[in-house]
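Recall the central idea of this unit: under ordinary conditions, the amino acid sequence of a chain determines the structure it adopts. In this exercise we apply that idea directly, starting from the sequence alone.
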Amino acid sequence: MEKLYDLFPDYARDLKLNLQNVLKQAELTEQQAWGTAVASAVAARNPQLIAEVLAEAGQHLSADALHAAKAAAAVMGMNNVYYRFQHLSGNERYQQIPARLRMQVIRSHGSDPIDFELWCTAVSAINGCGSCVASHERVLREKGVPEETILAAVRIASVIHGSAAVLDTEAVQATEPAIS
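Accordingly, the structure predicted from this sequence is:
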């Protein structure tokens, strides 16, 4: 991750420092933290960030947990669009029509169910789907997960998302001529 940290410009110093710290929060296990980082990086869509997070996460996650974190980002990427549309449209009829979307990975991800819910919550926060955030957050609380743990995962998601925006900006700026 050191190579990644070197890419942060001075205006994003807070994000760089936050990224160095959020992966060490006491409220999360190592698997929860790094799985959240993977799912969030995939959701944030910056190739450099994804590559660096995946490389580092491989040292902290089992193959099953890494697979599940990527699966959480994939399935929630689909679900967040679908359920956000249902919510934003305001048309209650859409909620009565079956989704007809395959989402078997939600039940067959092969990782800890609480960790998977945390990863789904983090991705849903990045993607701005209030329905999915509320649903997954409720499941976590019903399973006894404290609010501090849930917020720690969302904290990682927010820093990863902000970091992706900075890296995207710097990549564009490196390839575009300076505006005078």
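DSSP finds nine helices and no strands in the chain.
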